[in-house]
From TrEMBL:
It comes from Streptomyces inusitatus. InterPro entries: DUF4442, HotDog_dom_sf. This is DUF4442 domain-containing protein.
Length: 145
């Protein structure tokens, strides 16, 4: 099962928005929110909540790609999220997520008995490449008891 299929199966909201998983690696995740009238706001672009979900899903995809092998030891959880809407988004938008700490450092902290926290930064872009939003999510890997 691909990361996109796993995320869509375990997080129904991602499937509800018809998110498209363009790239899902441990280094980068890129998801697209197609232009869908049902998810428009009052000015005809994607609703802020849909863009939040797009960006959060991109962060979840990179976390699963990077740490999916550790699910038997720890559960990934979003701790905090902050989003800034920079420009008007119209049409389809994409979210590109990147990890803010090296994977090896995060795994080493978990191996040492810690509960590592790490940021995932996401840029939301419209089709012309303009950044319409930026999001940062602080994630943790909570060890199983």
């Amino acid at each position: 099962m691909s990361v996109g299929e796993m995320l869509a199966a375990t997080v129904p909201m991602a499937k509800t928005l018809n998110l498209e998983f363009l790239e899902t690696t441990a280094e980068r995740a890129v998801l697209r929110l197609p232009d869908q009238k049902d998810f428009h706001n009052h000015v005809g672009g994607p609703h802020a909540g849909a863009m939040f979900t797009l960006a959060e899903s991109a962060s979840g995809a990179i976390v699963l790609a990077a740490f999916g092998k550790l699910l038997d030891r720890a559960v990934p959880l979003a701790v905090k999220a902050e989003i800034g809407y920079k420009k008007l988004a119209m049409g389809e938008v994409t979210a590109t997520a990147t990890l803010g700490r090296p994977i090896a450092d995060i795994v080493a902290e978990l191996d040492a008995g810690g509960r590592p926290e790490f940021p995932v930064d996401i840029a939301i872009r419209r089709a012309d490449g303009a950044v319409t939003g930026e999001m940062s999510i602080l994630w943790t890997l909570r060890p199983h008891s």
